[in-house]
Amino acid sequence: MTSTWVSVLASYLHLLAVAVYVGGSIAMELVVGPAQRFVPPAQAQVIGQRAADRFLVLVWSALALFPVSGMLLFFSLGDEHTLSGTRLFTTTYGQTLLTMMLLWVVLVVNGAVITFVLRPRLVRRASARSGSAGTAEHLQTMQAAARWVSYITRADLVVALFIVLLGASMAYGHGLV
């Protein structure tokens, strides 16, 4: 009974994290981003900054929830016997799980780069006075950081969708890898 309850809770939390991460990424990429092109640049910047600030809280929450709910789900289903010994590396199920974990690390690293490297550049550059001597340089740095954020978020969306595919292959088969 307890195992079933834990399994249902873990499944719910895992799917909630997937929905928040993937759904939020799609909304940011296909709704917020294109909508910003129809408002003045200063307003687009504020909208983008505010939306990204809120979305980063959801992203980091989902990224933290993935391994916790995944391990709960894994052990509540009794799958640990399927990966004993070297089976993590030799079975399709184990290789798929390992691939998903490695791709999760990619999402965390990309999230850290966006959160702790690129976003501070955007915020710092955005707050620079427009009358300063290096305005053109500030603008170029800000545009470069914004481009990199866009590239990384698109790559993250592709990686996240691939992880969903791998997860479905594990749930309804023995994995893809």
Describe this structure in a few short sentences.
The protein has helices spanning 2-36, 41-76, 87-90, 92-126, 135-171.
Query: What is the arithmetic mean of pLDDT?
Result: 84
Q: How many DSSP helices? A: 5
Strand content: under 5%
Q: Return Rg in Å.
A: 20 Å
Approximate shape:
elongated
Look at the helices and sheets and give the structural class: mainly alpha
DSSP strand count: 0
Summarize the structure in words.
The protein is mainly α and 177 residues long. The protein has one domain. It is built from five helices and no strands. It has helices at 2-36, 41-76, 87-90, 92-126, 135-171. The protein starts with a helix and ends in a 6-residue tail after the last helix. The model has no long low-confidence stretch (mean pLDDT 84).
Topology:
Blueprint: H1 2-36, H2 41-76, H3 87-90, H4 92-126, H5 135-171
What would the keywords be for this entry?
177 residues, mainly alpha
